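sry for the spam today, last one i promise. struct tokens for design, 316 residues
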């Protein structure tokens, strides 16, 4: 594998994540323009379509902002509830607290909360959107089965997520995908009820509305597919960045590589069934698929293959 310097790795992944994040609003605006274009009256020119689109943009932006405000707080509270994590008391595990405190001092960070999931699997994640809510959560298994250097590297990985504001970024990407998932559901329901109305004696206007809804459905499905690809690509880039951040913080990249080897194949936490929450963990292996489907499995994976992460860490 070609050598990539640590700072180069961080810089490249930041640039790529920024570009991917900028694509979300562009997809929404582009699909809105296409909807107006495909449903326009026959006498409409391209200029007419664009002028109509420009008139719709302020309402579109306002609607997205309202959705964001509601979904932002719903997602942050959902993450806290979905894992069943509980606070880890200092007296219960001084080893973990000493590791977290030493790393936060070295990084110039405030001490986050430390939670535990009572599960023998090996996994961990970072959550929170500000200093009051930042939390590092560890499974019981990862605490018991990793040595000090390996556990320190895992904690450094999660602290790097906090330093990089990755939880905020991933919530934003989940919200954008959720917009299109909601639109697909609305369009399917509308088509179902409009077809019921036509069977009861609808006219030509009903047929025209059905065509418009079919176009909207097709565009919403396309939007969901595209933004999902962006969301997963961002998630994969941030995992590489957190790995690089952990290597930089501990000066022991091979300790994280060793931890990832132990985590691989032992990271499934049964209590966490929500895929958008599992995305936050240090490892979230996709369901195995074969042949042609393995390519698509990679595109929709939230994490890079753990073997590639280990290979990158071992070249530092």
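last one done:
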């Amino acid at each position: 594998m070609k050598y990539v310097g640590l700072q180069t790795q961080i810089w490249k992944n930041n640039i790529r994540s920024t570009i991917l994040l900028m694509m979300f609003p562009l997809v929404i605006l582009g699909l809105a323009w296409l909807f107006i274009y495909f449903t326009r009256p026959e006498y409409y020119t391209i200029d007419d379509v664009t002028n109509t689109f420009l008139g719709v943009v302020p309402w579109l932006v306002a609607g997205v902002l309202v959705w964001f405000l509601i979904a932002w707080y719903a997602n942050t509270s959902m993450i806290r509830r979905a894992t069943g994590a509980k606070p880890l008391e200092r007296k219960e595990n001084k080893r973990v607290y000493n590791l977290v405190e030493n790393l936060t001092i070295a990084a110039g960070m405030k001490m986050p909360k430390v939670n535990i999931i009572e599960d023998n699997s090996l996994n961990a994640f970072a959550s929170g959107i500000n200093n009051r809510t930042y939390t590092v959560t560890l499974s019981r298994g990862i605490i018991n089965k990793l040595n000090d250097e390996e556990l320190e590297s895992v904690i450094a990985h999660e602290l790097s997520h906090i330093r990089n504001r990755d939880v905020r970024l991933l919530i934003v990407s989940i919200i954008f995908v959720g917009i299109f998932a909601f639109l697909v559901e609305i369009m399917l329901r509308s088509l179902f009820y409009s077809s019921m109305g036509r069977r009861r004696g609808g006219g030509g206007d009903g047929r025209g509305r059905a065509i418009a809804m079919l176009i909207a459905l097709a565009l919403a499905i396309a939007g969901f597919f595209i933004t999902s690809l962006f969301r997963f690509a961002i998630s994969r880039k941030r995992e590489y960045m957190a790995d690089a951040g952990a290597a930089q913080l501990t000066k022991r990249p091979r300790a994280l590589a060793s931890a990832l080897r132990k985590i691989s194949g032992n990271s499934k936490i049964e209590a966490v069934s929500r895929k958008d929450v599992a995305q936050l963990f240090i490892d979230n292996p996709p369901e195995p698929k074969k042949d042609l489907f393995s390519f698509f499995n990679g595109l929709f994976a939230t994490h890079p293959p753990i073997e590639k992460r280990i290979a990158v860490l071992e070249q530092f």
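The mean pLDDT is 82. ok im logging off now
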